[in-house]
Amino acid sequence: MAGAFGYEAGHYDISMQMAEVSLLPAVRKVPNAIVVADGTSCRHQIHDGAQREALHVARLLERQPAVTPA
User: Fold this and answer.
1) According to the 3-state scheme, what is the secondary structure of the chain?
2) Is the pTM of this model over 0.85?
């Protein structure tokens, strides 16, 4: 989506076409995979195009148990 590029009405279709080149097919190919995307617009595009939730890396790390130094 390249930031706000894909949100603009005149760019939405080309943005989704670009996502269909590799991103969205890859997300659909592995339905149980955790999808990580740092950008808000990237997460929205993944949701809109593949009906999948993409997590910010901080949210993924938040799910992990804390590691205690030995």
Assistant:
1) CCCCHHHCCCCHHHHHHHHCCCHHHHHHHCCCCCEECCCHHHHHHHHHHHCCCEECHHHHHHHCCCCCCC
2) no
